[in-house]
């Protein structure tokens, strides 16, 4: 249901899950912009329980610190939408959910800017035991299109983040 609503193919999501399972990896998310939609898309496909540990919805800025362990000083200094916040969200998801891979998402869906950051700005963090990286993009479209695009981006980056 959520997979189709996001404009994804069930086979695409199943391939991400299969990639995780083949590598013996588990995943967890800490999501702001997407408020749990990455985790929901993964668990919308049968067999997800073999690899999905859980997800944190950290929509409010203070929840990023409280639940995901993002540095409060960083949040005060740069705001909630920043590549370093995505990085710390990914690390927090990985650590707090005891997963092999953490995914962190933050951004601005719009229609208005947030803390001076333009709508469509998306930061996706990936954290494994070997590395932490962030991909930042600007997506076009309305609120729904930006959030759906952020989910698609996170799922596309997930298998790559395992190498």
Can you give a write-up of this model?
By secondary structure, the chain is α/β, with parallel strands linked by helices. It has one domain (2-160): CinA-like (Maf protein), CATH 3.90.950.20. 44% of the residues lie in helices and 20% in strands. The chain has helices at 2-5, 10-22, 37-43, 61-68, 72-78, 83-96, 143-160; strands at 27-31, 52-57, 101-107, 121-127, 132-138. It has a five-stranded mixed beta sheet.
Which features does this protein show?
5 strands, 163 residues, alpha/beta, 5-stranded mixed sheet, Maf protein, 7 helices
How would you sum up this structure in a few lines?
This protein is 44% helix and 20% strand.
Task: Tell me the number of structural domains.
Answer: 1
Q: Give the name of the CATH superfamily.
A: CinA-like
Number of helices: 7
The coarse silhouette is globular
At the third CATH level, what is the topology name?
Answer: Maf protein
So what's the CATH class?
Answer: Alpha Beta
Label the structural class. alpha/beta
- For the termini, the CA-CA separation is 30 Å
Topology of helices and strands:
Layout: H1 2-5, H2 10-22, E1 27-31, H3 37-43, E2 52-57, H4 61-68, H5 72-78, H6 83-96, E3 101-107, E4 121-127, E5 132-138, H7 143-160
Parallel strand pairs: 1-2, 1-3
Antiparallel strand pairs: 3-4, 4-5
Helix pairs in contact: 2-7
